[in-house]
Amino acid sequence: xxxxERLLEVAIERKALQFGEFELSSGGxxxxxxxxxxxxxxxxxxxxxxxxxxxxxYQCNAEVLAGPTLGADPIVSAVSTLSYVxxxxxSALIVRKEKKSHGRGRNIExxxxxxxxxxxxxxxxxxxxxxxxxxxxxEDEGCEVVKVLSIMDRMAGGSEELxxxxxxxxxxxxxxxxxxxxxxxxxxH
Length: 189
Description:
alpha/beta; Rossmann fold; 7-stranded mixed beta sheet; two-stranded antiparallel ribbon; 9 strands; globular
């Protein structure tokens, strides 16, 4: 069994992926619910998520992985830790919902510098709102976004808008309009 196949199994085992009737934060409803934190805060889930994302991050030559708090926090941490273990470190950045009103007033936590190549990640992509916030924050600091990633693409317009705006987007899993979840075919190459 591949890492991504096992990751999908862990998502179901840990109830990160559930089926039924659920309301989305965007206001719509869906017949499945994906809670990425239940997957990425599990030790095996975090490890497998990092193993699946690292080759993509290495391929696009990203030096840093950034993501919006809270969904991306465990992802960027797991990826950064595994990258160090593998001897090809990729640093982690966490993008706040809004700038701190105290201290240095930062919007992004972690070390970075202008011109750095950054991949942006979140646990899910629905409309892309959290991803766009993180992208804008990273670009406002003078960094280049070279890839946008998510564990789950709900196929609800976010990934299409990312690509329309010129960003390379890739997800590990995809949901179709019937709520069926499958491994993104791009992950098998």
